[in-house]
């Protein structure tokens, strides 16, 4: 990707740990993509590594020094043991795609 078209972003937070749960349920939360660069960040896609994760966001362009809230729902039904899933923000980021991590343990 042409470096003249790229920008830098950060995810805040970049990780969430739900700890230990006695029963599997749906978890909801959010994180922000902040554009720290001088060019617009064009969010091409948000991809999760599991069909158990749904995401919602309102736009695909984030201007310099602006942020976008990404909401997520993780359906942990029928899951057991240690869980580790990711959500990846794909776009014109100078340092590659950025990853949000969700982890914890279902102890039931």
Short description:
With 108 residues, the protein is mostly beta strands. 0% of the residues lie in helices and 59% in strands. The chain has a single domain, classed as Immunoglobulins (Immunoglobulin-like).
User: What separation lies between the terminal Cα atoms?
Assistant: 46 Å
Helix-strand sequence:
EEEEEEEEE
**Main pleated sheet:** 5 strands, mixed
The total count of helices amounts to: 0
**Annotated CATH topology:** Immunoglobulin-like
Number of domains: 1
Helix content: under 10%
Q: Which percent range describes the beta-strand content?
A: over 45%
Under CATH, the homologous superfamily reads Immunoglobulins
* Secondary structure category: mainly beta
| Main sheet strand line-up | 2-9-8-4-6
Return Rg in Å.
Answer: 15 Å
Shape: elongated
| Architecture per CATH nomenclature, i.e. the level-2 architecture | Sandwich
Secondary structure: number of strands? 9
CATH class: Mainly Beta
Poorly predicted parts = none
Mean pLDDT: 92
Structural commentary:
The protein is mainly beta and 108 residues long. The protein has one domain (3-106): Sandwich (Immunoglobulin-like), CATH 2.60.40.10. The protein is built from no helices and nine strands. The protein has strands spanning 9-12, 15-21, 26-35, 41-48, 53-56, 61-62, 67-75, 81-91, 98-106. The radius of gyration is 15 Å and the shape is elongated.
Topology:
Elements: E1 9-12, E2 15-21, E3 26-35, E4 41-48, E5 53-56, E6 61-62, E7 67-75, E8 81-91, E9 98-106
Parallel strand pairs: 2-9
Antiparallel strand pairs: 1-3, 3-7, 4-6, 4-8, 5-7, 8-9
């Amino acid at each position: 990707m042409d470096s003249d078209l790229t920008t830098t972003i950060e995810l805040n937070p970049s990780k969430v740990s739900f700890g230990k749960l006695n029963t599997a349920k749906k978890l909801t939360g959010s994180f922000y993509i902040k554009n720290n660069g001088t060019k617009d960040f064009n969010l091409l896609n948000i991809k999760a590594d599991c069909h158990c994760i749904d995401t919602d966001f309102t736009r695909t362009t984030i201007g310099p020094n602006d942020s976008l809230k990404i909401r997520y729902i993780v359906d942990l039904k029928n899951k057991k043991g240690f869980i580790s899933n990711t959500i990846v923000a794909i776009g014109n980021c100078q340092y590659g795609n950025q990853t949000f991590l969700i982890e914890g343990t279902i102890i039931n």
